[in-house]
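forwarding from the other thread:

> can someone predict this with magnesium ion?

sure thing
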Amino acid sequence: MQTPITPKEETRKGNFVEQIVAADLSEGKNDGRIQTRFPPEPNGYLHIGHAKAICMDFGVAEKFGGVCNLRFDDTNPEKEDTEYVEAILEDISWLGFKWGQIYYASDYFQQLWDFAVRLIKEGKAYIDEQTSEEIAAQKGTPTQPGIESPYRNRPVEENLRLFEQMNTGEIEEGKMVLRAKIDMANPNMHFRDPIIYRVINRAHHRTGTTWKAYPMYDFAHGQSDYFEGVTHSICTLEFVPHRPLYDFFIDELKEGQDLQDHRPRQIEFNRLNLTYTVMSKRKLLALVKEGLVDGWDDPRMPTVCGLRRRGYSPQAIRRFIDMIGYTKYDALNDFSMLEAAAREDLNQRALRVSAVLNPVKLIIDNYPEGQTEELVAVNNPENEADGTHTITFSRELWMERDDFMEDAPKKFFRMSPGKEVRLKNAYIVCCTGCVKDADGNITEIHCEYDPDSKSGMPGADRKVKGTLHWLSAAHCQPAEVRLYDRLFNVEDPSASDLDFRELLNSESKKVIQGYVEQYAAEQKQTTYLQFQRIGYFTYDKDSTPERLIFNRTVSLKDNWAKNK
Ligand code: ATP
Ligand code: MG
């Protein structure tokens, strides 16, 4: 068994990919050049799994003084769109990474076509007219060789003519494909005459209707890496069995040609899978298209833009990715680890403010009517440089309903008749009772304050067990507050027999009306906030000064484990 690498060791030596790259450098490979790429298909928005790949691809380039380029893997016009290209650029920048060049696989359509024609001429590729079902049925199994296609030995001239027709619109979609003639008995199924071109009759977001024959992933990816001069092509584990074919096509491409001698090296790491969510773009797209969430940037989505709208900082996402690390084994990571990373990060950067989300009136009977005071509140106890602001105190306040109990057990250190608590940044008050309506609902809580107990004054450090937050009713702002939770009810929706739509958590979004202090209403849209004693929040993108809307990023404590 392998000894597990402790995080400290991993930091020193770098992750296993960085160790491979370092070894290549010390062996003098690629003349000391390091070039990676991030290759998203522009068929959806980036999710946190992509962020893991981004941290790897850009991280390796940064660490070794190389460059990471972007390459849009746009070889399937059916699902691709410039909307996605733009969103991907925005998300990568937001995560804090800088790419070298922007490339498109579609830039290489001519080169790839020429290479395919060369293979046909060399007798290494042929047009197959069978249906995809027939082709699949002939593939065999890992232990059983496949069956050769009846079209395998078609004459070169006919292959060339039909390939041309595949690209002119004369051949309908699905009627013909170009296959590499390799080895129908190869133990690696990917070598059993893989399909390398198919017909798609749809305008491409960049090349329009120039092409109708489009290269398959295995015929485009490695060659694109090679054309660009990629030295390390880092991807996820499902591509391990593709690697021999990746190398095979690069060898074929170079054979007998006067081409550069370098070759990209494919290295695979484990994908990120997270509990209580799905990461497949097909499923995420379905959630959006079917209106099951409010768009790609719905704060419950695992997308980068969703997490951003939810109030995650780029640093929190990168911290989480550092925490989980890179391995060669697939695993399911706990969503609560992502939340823990957010708490750690936001604790450092969030502006502390007061908000009351389930308000009930608190009247201080011995505080003069009409009097107000500006009290000092610390912006961030984790960073003195963030300074202070003031909050208005008065006779009529809002407090949280849950902070009051009429018949409280001994361990209840919040407000109950006859007991003292401190009002944060203000005074110690003693509860004198409450008023109820005809149905027995509490409408007002009453208390008296001790004028000598003002926070920060000498003698004010009298011990009281509880400190409560509050707002002056006449000096705060109403706000809509959106409380988000796990998008799915089950840990691993993809492992269930049920359709993923049936596993959605119906309680994942609750909208409530509360109040926030004036200062919280005046911040920049992108400010990270802590509603004290409640959680981390941020402005929703739809928030305006006239209609405040806040999203809960994460509660202060992990309540999920407790409630389960
Ligand atoms: P699709 O679901 O359409 O197959 P994909 O999730 O593979 O797409 P791509 O746009 O092809 O998305 O991915 C770009 C890069 O991000 C690839 O190198 C891929 O390996 C990586 N990637 C995708 N999902 C994850 C994930 N969950 N964890 C880590 N890396 C990922
Ligand atoms: Mg993919």
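Residues 48-63 form the longest helix (16 residues). thats all i got for now
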